[in-house]
Known about the structure:
Chains A, B: Keywords: Membrane, Transmembrane, Transmembrane helix. The structure is a homodimer. Chain A is mainly α. Chain A has helices spanning about 10-15, 30-35, 40-50, 55, 60-90, 95-110, 125-135, 140-155, 170-190, 200-210, 215-240, 245-260, 260-280, 315-320, 325-340, 350-365, 375-385, 390-410, 415-425, 435-440, 445-460, 460-480, 510-525, 545-560, 575-580, 595-605, 610-620; strands at about 305, 310, 485-490, 495-500, 530-535, 570, 585-590. Chain A folds into two domains: about 55-170 and about 230-430, no CATH class; about 485-620, STAS domain (Transcription Regulator spoIIAA, 2-Layer Sandwich). Chain A contains 27 helices and seven strands.
Amino acid sequence: MYPQLEPELEEKATKVRLLTSTGTGTKSPAHSEAKKPAPAPKWKRALLRHVPVFQWLPAYNLEWGIDDFIAGITLGLTIIPESIACALLAGLPVRYGLCSAFIGPLIYLIFGSIDKVIIGPTSLVALVSVQFTVGRPIEFAFLLTFLSGIVDIIMGSLRMGCIFEFISMPVIKAFSSATAVLVIESQIKVLLGIKYLVPGLINSVSMLISQIHKANMADLAMGVFAISFLLLIGLLDRVANNEKRHKALRICCRYLSTSRNTLIVLIAGIFSYICLCYREQLPYTLSKNSLSSFPNFTLPVFTIETPERTYSFWQIMRELNVGIVVIPIVGILTNISIGKLTPKGMVDTNHELFTVGLCNIFGACVQAMPSSGAFSRYAISTASGLRTPMANLYLGIVVLLALGYLSPWFNYIPEASLAAILICSLYTLLDFKLPVRLWRESKRDFGNWLLCFVVCVLFGVEVGLLVSIIVTAMHLLFLWARPEILVKIQALDDMQFISVVPGNGIYFPAINYLRERVLKACTRADFKITVVIDGHKITGLDYTAAQGISKLSTDLCRNSDAASSALLILYRFPTHLQHLIDLTENLVFCDSEAKVKEFLTQESLRNGYINLKEHIRASIDLGYKIEIE
Amino acid sequence: MYPQLEPELEEKATKVRLLTSTGTGTKSPAHSEAKKPAPAPKWKRALLRHVPVFQWLPAYNLEWGIDDFIAGITLGLTIIPESIACALLAGLPVRYGLCSAFIGPLIYLIFGSIDKVIIGPTSLVALVSVQFTVGRPIEFAFLLTFLSGIVDIIMGSLRMGCIFEFISMPVIKAFSSATAVLVIESQIKVLLGIKYLVPGLINSVSMLISQIHKANMADLAMGVFAISFLLLIGLLDRVANNEKRHKALRICCRYLSTSRNTLIVLIAGIFSYICLCYREQLPYTLSKNSLSSFPNFTLPVFTIETPERTYSFWQIMRELNVGIVVIPIVGILTNISIGKLTPKGMVDTNHELFTVGLCNIFGACVQAMPSSGAFSRYAISTASGLRTPMANLYLGIVVLLALGYLSPWFNYIPEASLAAILICSLYTLLDFKLPVRLWRESKRDFGNWLLCFVVCVLFGVEVGLLVSIIVTAMHLLFLWARPEILVKIQALDDMQFISVVPGNGIYFPAINYLRERVLKACTRADFKITVVIDGHKITGLDYTAAQGISKLSTDLCRNSDAASSALLILYRFPTHLQHLIDLTENLVFCDSEAKVKEFLTQESLRNGYINLKEHIRASIDLGYKIEIE
């Protein structure tokens, strides 16, 4: 017989007692368990948990060092053009993107818990933050970074990480697809060399169409070249995967592929530089405003003065509005999603909130834009063989050096090549296979996807995210109001009864529904039938529901004539929930089928639903006296 | 064997097939079912459902008529002093209370679905509405009535009645206890003859203490007399219940008891009138501003002009604020609670919203304050033997006559006697036995009770209600994030496996928790153990959760060495949910225990967890080839 599962303390339960692994000589779990060291003291475990650098640093070795160095340099070269592009997307001068690309990794090196997350500016965060900073003094951006860091840390301290569990996968996917659509749309105008700024996708598209005649062919040519280059070089990755014989060729292909962003920027930049040696002006737009200097470490200012007006801290807060909550949520979402892809598969969301919060607070002190992990960098860190977060150190140094010495050269990078980088990196986020699958398999999930996508695209990603979370939460609440309850007539030894099997725990929103379903079924039988509620699936019950069950027995009593009040049998109810239910005269608990049968026979006798022969047999069986009318 | 419950169409299932009721000659359900008439056409059923007067009117007879007449007159005499008291509590002249006490019952007579609900002003609604109308022109009150009627109807049309299911019983009880505390506190100052108006219980109590020296002994004496009288006459009800022999005495006691409110008002009024014949002024306060006239039927004005300023409709809306949503909710709550006490026990909340909405809209046209059913009137309608809503007609006529002809006499009623009526009727709502019981039996429900009570008393009943609904909803959501999942090591024929039994449906908020629990258990066994997820309790699964289960199998693969990837068996998963889960190489579905055993043996063989003898035996059993190393 398949053993019945009984509640047991988990700690006790998960202790492995592998009985059968005694015979053949393979290494058994028991063996490997014996190797485990004694548990560390509490403070040490807390330190290891909160400052993960101590977990891997003691075991750090040269081999890891070399791998991390190569990965760090590769990532550094990738993150530089990406940061520049994100800064432009966020409407900021390029240096502020680079600032957040050097401080984030250095903090994450120490506190980061997910190996392959590389903190830095992302197009998603840039897209959201531009709405709160556009047309405002640049200090708004740093304050937004600072305040979202503070919100991150507050959420982490209050252990609010669990709210991220209320974002379902279709919502996350719709959200990232919508972001990709919005960013790609915003970059198309850069590719075309058209400049305007209007809010909303529809406005922007109609503006683009109306201004299409102003398109600059040189920008477009540069953009198309860059996109083609990126896509072609991206294909080398496949070559690397298929190439088994020539190791040098494989490594070469892989490095070309992972550093394609850097290559296109280099090629386009050098081309522009050479052209400018011969001509005064270029036909396409270059990125500008890059000054070469290391960032200063200063606290962000909390009162902003402009020639026109002075913003007090509260005014700034009011202008930044929901931004200071949306940016942290959007940022952390990516980190959690990446964390779930790693072998460990588990993310301590509260710790992650704390770490990203620190990255943003320190970021604000070096004039950085808000930052988080990014899928594009996760892919590159995997491909470039990153071992530990130590790679962040080399990456940070590369970015810092670029910031200090290379900045003037960034002025030679064509904007269209940066737009091409963004478009190519976001193209992978566009996932339209999922909604097709959802449509086939789960209409409700498809509905959530569609709602989130449409609202994100039309009214902004933060509105879409909020609406979708509320709608999915409402559905979960509704499941408590209308749980699965099977109500049917059953027979046991020819004695009929109404069998009621609630699927979930019964909490207060469901009790009226249960009551109505039972009463409706009873009405059909004129309340002359026993009701058996089978509680073996019930995991929880609250006071309101318990009272409702007692009241149900009273209802059965009141509705039937005094002589034959219907009995309510509560069968297999969890023992710890039984005391909540008030006993009434026609309510009984049963834990065995035999007992149910006894009660049913008794009721049948009392109400005369049984013929005389049955009557006598049943009465003798149960030891009752026989009263023949 | 107790038969396994299988899903079946409910309509089909609830059709009664009583097989055994063939023997003895008692009336069987089948017999009474045969008497039922053929189902009415659709339009007729809709009419009967939406206009319940047609349900009982055709069968109306003289006996019912007499009972209803007596009950109607008794209720009319009770509702008059109560309405006056409520109008004073709401800070309105008395006639506006009476206006809503005559129009409500007349509408409810036609559309009302709960027999014993008597619509009229209630202290609860008065207490809430006074916050939105105090210190404002009187037209605000009528507009509040009108707009809450509109909101009622909108909520009913959108079938939003189910939101009332999210108010748990501890919350309702705490809410009504808090209301009672607030009203009693507000009436104590009337008993003492002190006049002030401050918001909040704490302010009010400290003001009362600081002004206690101004107390008027004559008011206090009148109040104490009225309370004592009401309590004493109330005791006659018990006498009536115990008196079995003398029918006349029983009836007399019951009528004295049910009309005690009228009696005290009559006694106190006549006393005041006689006193005023001899003296110029009375030492205690009388109610005032009663003018004798029938109400006009006019639409409420939507622009209010006062000597100081003019309020546009939007300004009024802004001033009334949440009031136009809170008043309908608070009003309907009482009706639903009463409905659950009636024999039918079922309330069509949407229909009730519609009916109360009509009462309020028409009420606003005759200058009435917001109205709803009240527990005090339910008790009296039960005691006075009401049969059908026809009693509402007599009640309405009595109130209308009082409004037209008796109003000048209301000026002789002492305010203290009205305060006494409110205090005595609300005293029964104070239920402090419930929190004691909750504390013993369900700490969480006690917490909800306490939260609701404290917030209601300190920050207002509408804030308390809202906060409590949100907190209880958050708990329900949390139950989806942390469902009951039993994880333990089990053995089947000496082959061990990790048994995972999720208690509820697994939806997206729970999937990470499930994954973490399983991975944690697997880590202890170095991922060399088969995992069996027993899904027999699972009622639902969404796409995110299904993907998570697939991912779990990949996790098991990735974490164990390539040679021995742990198997994930999904046992007894509902068939209609299986297609959602992506199949991976180490994920299998099983519906029988034998199949599970086969998989376990196979795994044991493959991973060498079984000794040689077992190995051979098992292999022969299952027909596998034996490969001895």
